[in-house]
């Protein structure tokens, strides 16, 4: 029997996962479930490789549950209070509760001071790096529509795909030899063109089918958003590569065959999402 290539495995995995992900954008609360599930798996992977030398598996599992719970609560509170006057409770306070909860769990269950400090530091970083960054999807969804939230995610997927294949074929100029040696300028440019074309096609088809509920943007604005995807998607990818190299791991996990772990799949998304929201706010 002929063995399936790595590229073939990547395509099969994407074909299985993508429809489920897209369906979760139909309703805001199913969208919250999607974001929290991604945070759950990504956070667990990050804590697993960043704390791999510490024998505190039960604490890691507990913290991996606390952080997505914070993200669920934030999504619900944001929906209820974001459009209310300033006298209403601030949903962002839930992240302060998250830091307090993480610290409380660790200092009451871990006796070793050095271990406790390392666990708290990595967990709070994960809350911000993974949870807080992905929570900007809520802002995009509520402020600019589900179409724009879906486009912001899928444009990163298409950027990664274009950068991977075009970089593999034409890449010569290495942009990060220390952290990500295979990443090339040609790949980034190819990914940019791919994501821009996808954005224009996505909006055109969405409007034709009557499913588009985002802002009315021109081609220059989409060019700017594609730059945001290319630049910050690349930085996010390189950042996660630096973490993995520091901890001596190749992939964050093996949840998604051909892609590695969940964190490997969303590394660019983590940096693109808040910047995409910022630029959408500036451009509309």
From TrEMBL:
The chain crosses the membrane at residues 12-41, 61-81, 93-113, 119-141, 187-205, 217-236, 266-283. GO terms for cellular component: plasma membrane. GO terms for biological process: CDP-diacylglycerol biosynthetic process. It is found in: Cell membrane. It is an enzyme of class 2 (transferase). Keywords: Cell membrane, Lipid biosynthesis, Lipid metabolism, Membrane, Nucleotidyltransferase, Phospholipid biosynthesis, Phospholipid metabolism, Transferase, Transmembrane, Transmembrane helix. Pathway: Lipid metabolism; Phospholipid metabolism; CDP-diacylglycerol biosynthesis; CDP-diacylglycerol from sn-glycerol 3-phosphate: step 3/3. It catalyses: a 1,2-diacyl-sn-glycero-3-phosphate + CTP + H(+) = a CDP-1,2-diacyl-sn-glycerol + diphosphate. Its main location: membrane. It is a multi-pass membrane protein. It comes from the Bacteria. One of its GO terms (molecular function) is phosphatidate cytidylyltransferase activity. PROSITE patterns: CDS (PS01315). InterPro entries: PC_trans. Its EC number is 2.7.7.41. Belongs to the CDS family. This is Phosphatidate cytidylyltransferase. It comes from Mesotoga prima MesG1.Ag.4.2.
